[in-house]
Every structure is written in structure tokens, then in C-alpha cells.
Structure prediction request, 470 residues.
Amino acid sequence: MISQFFVLSQRGDNIVFRDYRGEVKKETAEIFFRKVKFWKEDGQEEAPPVFNVDGVNYFHVKVVGLLFVATTRVNVSPSLVLELLQRIARVIKDYLGVLNEDSLRRNFVLVYELLDEVIDFGYVQTTSTEVLKSYVFNEPIVVEGSHLSPLGPAGLFMQGTKRMPGTAVTKSVVANDPGGRKREEIFVDIIEKISITFSSSGYILTSEIDGTIQMKSYLTGNPEIRLALNDDLSIGRGGGSVYDYRSSLGSGAVILDDCNFHESVRLDSFEADKTLTLVPPDGEFPVMNYRMTQEFKPPFRINALIEEAGALKAEVILKVYAEFPSNISANTIVVQMPLPNYTMRASFELEPGAVAQNCWGIRTYTTSQANIFTRITWYGDVIGLNRAALNISLGGNITKESGPVSMTFTIPMYNASKLQVTNPHKGNVYSTTELPIEVKYLQIAKKSGTYNPYRWVRYVTLANSYVARL
Prediction:
């Protein structure tokens, strides 16, 4: 049971606010934002998803830069409320097509109608996009996605004014195409977030992939579909080695550490032929979430070496290698490295031939093919220090007080697990090649001439935690 629900922008503007029970004072949005903005408790710089202020419990999640918040005075399950906030964000995105501040403001009547149907007097009624269609009557005002707005993975496929076929996934599930035609499409996204820790010499210490097979359905009549995965997929190690390469192509068996499925998925034949059967609900939903620690080739490799370069300065030699095909481009690449507190100034030197744009204190790299070699030099504050103290500072503590080097990036149409798509079979089938993690086909059981199959499935690789130790 929740008392209030509201959505705040990054600036703290109250975009949507609904008070269901009148138990909590109206100033909670201001109190929440001020608390989150200047959070310094328990040695943390960011507020946890759940905290209490003056007897009021605050729950929040951040979705594409927007803060979805719920408040209550009673003791409720945190995981229940956080999942509810995620589902509300997903339902709003299904109806608006694009979830951002502009779309919320233009469709506030529709958003309030959705909230009144999802929650009644603080109690959850339904979060199903399909069920809500019977009770929600306002039409969405379609807002075209801007490349400056965080649209999630779908926004990565915008190319100026030209749209690739898959960008139709950012449209509302309740709005028809121009001319009143019904959209008969289903989209599949393979999204993987990779976490890697490198040693200073570039060796991988830990690695992990968190992946999602995401669908968005525009099919009328809710036909049954079948999604086939590769035959050598196995769940859990079962005592086998991750280096048990059995494929004739040398790609090896796919071993997932664990996974979970959407509630609509039936697993009757999963053990026999690795096929998932489901009746897709309207809107966007994760068919399967999985985690894999099987060895894989990282898209970037980082080397970082720290050296004393003189009596008053130290240097870091940073090398970033791109290890993916030249026909793929990475974007939104940011490399960051914290420097010691006693740093007076820092200089940055980039090797000839590497392309970069100046951003903050280090740089933002917008190239995927050039291997980047750079040298960062910083000068320490020696006021009040003698030479012996400086040697101790530079030699003994500088490694502990510097770094680690962290990296964030996005690579469209690339998967660290090597999932790729070739030309499909004729008809309503989507086919892929024999590669480690594989979606062999997506088949619609009901025959219809109005279905519009595409030739490819979209892939996105994101950096979840990508760091290199000094």
C-alpha cells in the first residue's frame, strides 16, 4: 500500500504527482529531492533506493533520467514497491512510445488516467498493458524521439532524420499507423551489460554478462509464438568446464550461470529442444534474463601504468584497445580516472592518430577503431612537504589514492556473446547463425498476410562495470 506516487525530472521539477490516501504531507517531493541531491549519510555519495525521513518511507528508481518515487508510512515490502515503480514506467512507455520529460508533459491526461487504473486508494490493481486497454480511452500524443533524450536502447538506432526499421519499437502500442492501419509487428532486442575488471597489465580478473531478450509486441489477437535458442545451451555449470569447446566452429557450448523467464513463457519443450512458447502480451517485456560468466572476448581492453616522472609529478600511461570488427562503431565512450586529493594540476597528451573530444578533465573518445595511447601527467601539492614526505606520497600511496580507470560505452549491433543475425527464412521466421548465444528463430504460429517480418534483430552491448586497476 502506497500513499503517493510522483515523477521528478533531473532538475527536481514535479512532472506527475498523485496522492492516493492523504496520509503524507504534500511537500514530500521537495523533501525527497533535497535529500537525494545532497545525500552524504553512511559514507555514501548516492541515496539508496529506499530510505526513511521523519517517519515517511521513500522508494525510488531512476528510469532514463527520470525519478519514479513512491511514499508510504506503513511497512511494505521494498522489492514489491520498487518492482511496481519499474512496471509503471514500462506501462507508461508502452502507451506513450517514448519515455522522457517531453512525452510525459504532453500526455499528462493519459498518464493520470493510467495511474488511476493501475493504483486504487494505494493498492495495486494491474500493471498489464493489455488489460489496461479496456479501461484507458485517451489517445497518446506521439512525441518523436530526440537523439538528445535518453530513450533507452531503442534510441541508439536513430540516424539523424533517417530511421532504421527497428525504430518503430519506440511507438505507442495503442496508436495506429497513419491511415488507421493496425501495426502487425513484433520486435526482439538482445541487450547485454558487461562487467569486467582488468589488472594493470590488461589481463582479465573478473568478467560477467547480464543479458536480456527483450520483446515489444504489436500483434493483434495475441497469437502464440515460438522462440528457439541454440541446442547446446545449458543452465548451470553442472560440474562441466567453461572451456569445454564442443562446436565444430570452435565457439563452444553456451553455459548460463542462471536465468529467469517472463510469466507468459511456457517451458514444456525447453529441455528437449530449447524452445520457448508464449503468448506475448501487448507492449514491452523481458522474455528471458540471464547471467553468464563464461569466458568471452571483451570489446575493449585497458592497460594502465603509473610512474613517478620527477620530484614533483607522476604519470599514468593509459592504453585502450578496440577489439571488435572495423564495420562496427561504438559511441558515448567515456574514460575516467580519479586523481589524488593533493593534485594541483593535470595535463593530457594523446598519441598522434587517435581521435578524441575534450570532455571534463580527461576525454570522451568517439572512435571505435583507433587504439588509444595517452599520457596523463599531474603535479602534486608539495606545500608543507619535504622531499622524503613527497617520495612516500608518490611512491607508496599514489596507487592507492588514484584510479581505478573506469570506462562506459555503448555498441549498437554488437554482442559480447557473439549473437548475430543472418538473412531470415521466408515468412514469419527470424533466423541466426550458429554462434555461441543464439536465437535460432522466432516463429508466429498463426498465419497472416498482414504480419511484417524484418530481416534482423537488434543488439546492444553496454558497459555495466568496466574498470582497470592501477
In short: The CA atoms of residues 260 and 286 lie 10 Å apart.
